[in-house]
Design goal:
single chain; 277 residues; alpha+beta; Arc Repressor Mutant, subunit A; 3 domains; three-stranded antiparallel β-sheet; two-stranded antiparallel sheet; 7 strands; 17% strand; elongated
Length: 277
């Protein structure tokens, strides 16, 4: 039986608390062996398949250091067993969730106040769902715990979003690079370029578009890229109980000199001026 008051290994709560993937693997092994704990040798052996799955095989010799990374958040017990020491995960330290995520009880209450899932619209009262606080832009991708980056999701939508975003782990570097651009048009465009030829779901585009500041009308910014000569195809799929829009980049043009917004406005005016009266 796992210790009480500990987040499951695959939970968003753990990802918010522990940013290092290899440290989360260490946590998983300790979480799965609560009664007697593990030795450092056993830790390396048990962690090996998880590290391989995450593409982190080279981290196997650093697991004792990754375990120390967990010490500011969780409590441990060391028990001598003959000639070896067993390490056991026993709980979490007080107030660490707020310290690591920056989400206070007051902020959490504000985020959950609408009492409705931000994706599917279901409510606890009418549909029996449980709402959680989710980061629109994941912490692992550079998101913050500021109020504008938080929204309420039901557990089902939260899990679906996590699984979908995890499928882009191999492209995480390109996604973070796209999010680092100043203008929303460029953030969206660089994401589509990085994933050129792939169908990109709308929620991922919305997250990247909102990296600097939340973009409620990011769809308009995406459509405006067509004014610059870009070809972006749209399709729809029914997944996770709702309909999703997908976008695929077929052709792109070099970015204009100066501000993208200014160039789009100029071209739109030019196009309107050429319309027959």
């Amino acid at each position: 039986m796992a210790p009480l008051d500990l987040p499951p290994p695959d939970s968003d709560e753990l990802r918010a608390l522990v940013s290092s993937a290899s440290a989360r693997v260490v946590y998983r092994v300790l979480y799965e062996h609560p009664d007697h704990g593990v030795t450092l040798l056993e830790l390396r052996e048990l962690a090996a398949p998880y590290l391989a799955e995450e593409g982190l095989a080279g981290e196997q010799e650093q697991l004792d250091r990754r375990k120390r990374d967990l010490h500011p958040i969780f409590t441990f017990e060391q028990v001598r067993d003959g000639n070896v020491v067993r390490h056991r995960l026993t709980g979490r330290k007080a107030k660490q969730t707020e310290a690591r995520t920056g989400i206070s009880a007051k902020t959490r209450a504000i985020v959950l106040q609408p009492n409705r899932c931000g994706m599917c619209g279901r409510t606890p009262l009418e549909d029996g769902v449980k709402l959680v606080v989710d980061h629109r832009i994941p912490l692992a991708w550079g998101g913050s715990s500021e109020l504008e980056n938080l929204w309420p999701l039901c557990e089902e939508c939260n899990a679906g979003k996590k699984d979908h975003f995890k499928s882009f782990d191999a492209d995480a570097s390109a996604i973070r690079q796209a999010m680092g651009n100043e203008e929303p048009h460029r953030r969206i465009g660089e994401l589509l370029k990085a994933l050129e030829g792939q169908d990109v779901r709308s929620d991922l585009i919305g997250v990247v578009a909102s990296a600097g500041r939340y973009q409620e009308d990011w769809q308009k910014r995406l459509r405006e890229l067509r004014t610059l000569g870009w070809t972006i195809l749209t399709s729809r799929r029914f997944e996770e109980g709702r309909s999703w829009s997908y976008y695929r980049l077929e052709h792109w043009e070099p970015w204009p000199e100066g501000k993208i917004r200014t160039e789009i406005t100029r071209r739109e005016r030019e196009r309107r001026g050429k319309r027959p009266s």
